[in-house]
Amino acid sequence: MVSAALEAAVVAQLALFTLYAFVSAHKGVGALYFLAALTGLISFMLAGNFLAAQLSGLDFVNTLNIALELLVGPALFLYVYYAQPEPQPLKKRDAFHVVPALLGVTIRFSVIDFLDIYIAAVLIAYLTASGWLLKRGEHTLPFIRFSGGLIGLFAVVLGLRFFVAADAAIYSSFRESEWYLILLGAILIIACLILFVSLQWPEILNPVSHTPKYALSSLHKEGIQELATKLRDMIDCEQPHLRADLSLDELAQELSVRPRDLSQTINSMFGMNFSAFINSERVKAAASRLRTASAEPIKSIMYDSGFSSKTAFNLEFKKVFGVTPSQYRNAARQDENT
Questions:
Q1: What span, in angstroms and rounded, lies between the C-alpha atoms of 233 and 227?
Q2: How far apart are CA 131 and CA 8, in angstroms?
Q3: CB neighbours (10 Å) of residue 246?
Q4: Does the CA dihedral 88-93-98-103 come out positive or negative?
Q5: How far is residue 275's CA from residue 188's CA, in Å, rounded to a whole number?
Q6: CA angle, 80 then 10 then 58, to 5°
Q7: Rounded to 5, what percent of the chain is helix, strand, coil?
Q8: Of 227, 229, 152, 217, residue with least CA distance to 186
């Protein structure tokens, strides 16, 4: 009865979230297709376990669950792959990720003794690949923490699955195993984690969704890189950032581009908005003056660098270099004397 209640609770939670994620994916958030698939697969597996326990003659459910279980890893991996800040179209080659599931069904009817080892190998491979992708990709820190938590929880579920398999020879039904109850508890935690994050911080589930203002942009990757180079050259040669009243519209006009495209380029290539980018360039210019013009008043350098407020200057300078302008100058003087 306890296992049935837990199964029902998890299935209900995941079924509702699957519907929510699928609807969101239809709105252009492609990565959520795979998160919907992930939660849907687990929901169907638990529902299948419940039906197989209640009704006789449903042996095909076990075979189906093996295929579904082998699709969990690919769904998690593809979710992480497509949830990067720069949106990517779905690819036909993604269909090849169903091959491990098809091989698993074949093994079930041929060399079943190796089935558990095969399932473990596939899941470990996909969990490792998902973790590697998080490390090497360009995901946001909140998404990395959320997805890292998911990968860790699935690793726990994988370990618990072996205890369930080991107890299968002892209990008349694996659903009677105490390890199965613990396994259900771990899956319930995963379901609660996903639901909580989706309600509190929906942008974490898919980082692409937090930049809808560029969804209709005609600026491609090559155009962004070209504009970034043009911007860098202007900053180095003409130094427009030293003007205290510089605005996004003015700089875009000088570059002969739309403000929207300039904003997108700064966000994509430098990882910050216009104001943060200009302030960082002003701070770098001020730091250079602090090193070379040791007798010049800091306040004068502040104004020449484009800042009109001492508080803002100190705050932005410390944000970049970790020290105040005066501390930076003192350190530079000590380096010259040594």
A1: 10
A2: 30
A3: 17
A4: negative
A5: 44
A6: 100
A7: 80, 0, 20
A8: 152
In angstroms, the Cα distances linking 29 to 20, 25, 139, 247 are: 12, 4, 15, 32
pLDDT in tens, 19-32: 877 776 665 556 77
Distance (Å, rounded) from C-alpha 128 to C-alpha 271? 27
* Helix, strand or coil, per DSSP, at residue 295: coil
Tokens representing 244 are 């205290």
Domain boundaries of the chain, sorted by first residue: 2-210, 215-337
- 201 in Cβ contact with 207 (< 8 Å): no
For 269-327, what is each residue's pLDDT tens digit? Answer: 888 888 889 999 999 999 999 888 878 899 999 999 999 889 889 999 988 888 999 99
Name the token pair of 140. 């946001």
Q: What is the pLDDT of residue 243?
A: 92
Encoded amino acid at 50, one letter: F
Angle ∠(152,193,48) on CA atoms, nearest 5? 85
Q: Tokens 């495209």 appear where?
A: 261
| 96 CB-contact burial (10 Å; exposed 0-12 / middle 13-18 / buried 19+) | exposed
- DSSP state for residue 309 in the 8-state scheme: -
Distance separating alpha carbons of residues 118 and 103, to the nearest angstrom: 9
For CA atoms 149, 151, 157, 162, give the dihedral sign: negative
What is residue 278's three-state secondary structure?
helix
In this prediction the pTM is 0.56
177-202 pLDDT, tens per residue? 676 777 777 777 877 777 777 666 66
Q: For the structural domain made of 215-337, what CATH number should be given?
A: 1.10.10.60
> What are the phi and psi torsion angles at 219 (to 5°)?
-85, 115
